[in-house]
Amino acid sequence: MNNSLTRVYIDDRQKEIKVPSGTRLLVRRACKAVLKFENFQYPAEVSVSFVDDEEIHRMNLEYRNVDRSTDVLSFPLTENGEYEVSPDTGCVPLGDIVISLEHAQAQAEEFGHSFEREVAYLTVHSMLHLLGYDHEAGGLEQVRMREREEGVLKQLGLPRGTTYVLD
Predict the structure, then answer these.
(1) CA-based angle 94:95:98, to the nearest 5?
(2) Handedness of CA 52, 57, 59, 60 (dihedral sign)
């Protein structure tokens, strides 16, 4: 797969957290790393939106009927591993990722790692959802997804206990 053909669109729709330099690049790298790790054979399109807790709460209630904020939401455009190439772009539209930067900042502090690692983790986690992984039922699927998350983060140089530093 040629990762250079993959498109990652990023939209900052919140005002609470100033997006640190390099975060957009890190999100793009994380998306592409998941596709490479999973041997995804097509150029892809992914939309990533940064939102505040209020907006993600509203979306969580509207789309999942869960009345609370959350860290990330995934909206896959594919089902059952069937991918359709967009005639306009030549890419497979995988779906949308919505990340609450307020949640990401709080969780980074809670877990004792950098904001950048948390955003990368949430991106990787959500990308795996877009590719059909699901941890909701627990068990083996949850273990498989967690192993893949850590494998991708390690490839990005962000294993547990480290931080992402821009040169």
Answers:
(1) 140
(2) positive
Q: Specify the length of the chain in residues.
A: 167
Find the CATH number of the domain harbouring 48.
3.40.390.30
Prediction pTM value = 0.90
- Domain ranges, residue 7: 3-155
Residue 161 lies in a domain: no
In a domain, residue 87? The reply is: yes
**Could you list the pLDDT tens digit for every one of the 167 residues in the chain?**
555 679 999 999 999 999 998 999 999 999 999 999 999 988 999 999 999 999 999 999 999 999 999 999 999 997 777 788 888 888 999 999 999 999 999 999 999 999 999 999 999 999 999 999 887 766 788 888 989 999 999 999 987 754 444 43
